[in-house]
Amino acid sequence: RLKVNSVVLSDGALNVQIDARGRANYDISKPTGEGASGEGGSETAISLKQARLRDMQLIYGDRQAQQEMLVEARDMTFSGEFSSTRFTLNTQADLFSEFVELEGTRYFVGKELGYDARMKVDLEAGHYDFEKVQVQVEDNTFNMDGYYHQEPELTDVDILLTSENSSLEAIVQLLPAQLLQSFGDLSSKGTFFFDAAVKGQYRQGENPDVTVKFGLQNGRVSSSRLEDDLKEVSFEASFTNGVKRSNRSSIFEINNFKGYLDRELVEFDLKVRNLDDPVVDFALDGVLPLESAHRLFGNELISGGSGEIEIKDLRVSGAYNDMIRASRVERVQASGQIEFDDAALLINEEKMTIDRGQLQLDNNLLTVAGVKLEGAGSEIELNGTFRNFLPVFLADSLNSNQAALEFTSTLGAKSLDIDRLLALTAAPVDESRAPAQVVDS
After folding, report:
1. pLDDT reported for residue 84
2. Pairwise CA distance, residues 142 & 214, whole Å
3. Does residue 439 belong to any structural domain of this protein?
4. What percent of the chain has pLDDT over 90?
5. What is the band of 31 on the pLDDT scale with cuts at 50, 70, 90?
6. Measured between alpha carbons, how far is 272 from 280 in angstroms, rounded to an integer?
7. Alpha carbons 317 and 284: distance in angstroms, whole number
8. Could you tell me which residue, 33 or 285, shows the higher pLDDT?
9. Same domain, yes or no, for 102 and 235?
10. Among the residues of 270-347, which ranges form H helices?
């Protein structure tokens, strides 16, 4: 029997792969003999007390479970009586995650990770009991409790994740990479609560039950897209993977969101069902002060705003794939009113103001009544009806779905400066990159 106090692996890669039939590309040394070990069970041929990884690439792939991971272990230690089949494991890690992919969705892309853990291990039974585990994601700490039990055909888990001093930005870091583009800059102050649970079995065709609950009470929410904080914010949010424990039965909800932007109340509710083919129920009511909210339009040509847009009982319900396609948008239910009160945006240094007017949404029909636009040397009044507004509004440069706006309207103009109106959408010239003037002598 070989006794080794410690092993250090550095500047390399550890690649673990499991194929579609559950076969791994490694084989752990099997116990030999019937002798007792330090804390119980038989002994392996090698007695090891500590292992350490430094600057190692950790590569993991499981085709059966549709899981993949690429993580850099800057410093990772494991200590315990590894020669025993039952022992207490102490482990710490400083990690950098390139990505963790679960069923085609990537998480923790480019994130600082770490943990400090103590757990009871029973190798023969395949049981890991978490005694004290803290997990770090960026600057946020989560406590983990429960167990992990591995059997040949399944994995049984019962894990609870909590955070005592959490915040909205901590939860945002747990979102998939594609959602981080929209919500990654959110932060909060106030009484924030969070807990998550994973309970049940992983096996082919079956997942455990996953539930997440979080919310904010009388707090503040900040974003780079808002000039001022949302104040006195309260909401409750939840996620469950549903009765079938799958993406298709999953439900995400934000309930009773209330907050004040420049002393104006904003309220909304959101429910998303079926993450594979999302069905959305959305309700919004409130006042949008453009001085603080003009960046929400996501247009770099808009540099300021004033006045207000009042949103009255706006509701949209239907499948997202129907909302973005003109051929299917008639299936979507939509209603609500939008009114303008000297609503102005500074676009390419031109102040454009809608000092009055109303928009009425009735399913796929948008009615424009008495919308008066002033600015850029023009004074225009618009009335009419528009169809396919939602597909056009939700279209982007990569996914337009050939959405075309159909309309019948009247346009009256006391004055009209077409050149200045066209210049509103022109990209500003960077004079530092302009070619130097050439003078022929």
Report:
1. 86
2. 13
3. no
4. 60
5. very low
6. 5
7. 12
8. 285
9. no
10. 290-293, 320-323
Check if the beta carbon of residue 24 is closer than 8 Å to that of residue 17: yes
- Better-scored residue on pLDDT, 310 or 137: 310
Partners of 3 in the β-ladder: 47
- Please indicate, yes or no, if residue 438 is contained in any of the structural domains: no
CB–CB of 264/247 below 8 Å? no
Q: Are residues 45 and 90 in the same domain?
A: yes
Q: Which of 97, 125, 153 is the last residue of a domain?
A: 125
Residue 272: Cβ within 10 Å count = 17
The total domain count for the chain is 3
Q: 408-429: string of b/e by CB count within 10 Å (b at 16+)?
A: eeeeeeeeeeeeebeebeeeee
Per the listing, tokens 């528009």 go with 386
User: CA separation (Å) from 110 to 95, 340, 424?
Assistant: 10, 42, 37
pLDDT digits (tens, 9 = 90+) for 107-150: 888 999 999 999 999 988 999 999 999 999 888 889 999 999 98
User: Is residue 215 domain-resident?
Assistant: yes
**Which tokens belong to 145?**
């409790």
Per the CB < 8 A criterion, the answer to whether 89 and 121 are in contact is: yes
Q: Phi/psi at 391 (nearest 5 deg)?
A: -60, -40
H or E element in which residue 166 lies: none
- Judge if 238 and 155 occupy the same domain: yes
Give Cα 416 distance to the centre of its chain.
44
Q: Is residue 434 part of a domain?
A: no
Is pLDDT of 10 > 90?
yes
Residues in the chain: 441
Three-class secondary structure of residue 180 per DSSP: helix
Looking up tokens 């085709």 gives 63
Do 345 and 409 lie in a common domain? yes
What would the pLDDT profile of 93-115 be if each residue is shown by its tens digit? 999 999 998 777 888 889 999 99
Is residue 238 located within the same domain as residue 287?
no
Q: What is the domain range of residue 399?
A: 277-426
Strand 406-415 to 378-387 pairing? antiparallel
**Residue 307: is its pLDDT beyond 50?**
yes
**Banded pLDDT at 81 (limits 50, 70, 90):** confident
Q: Do both 47 and 22 map to the same domain?
A: yes
338/384 same-domain check: yes
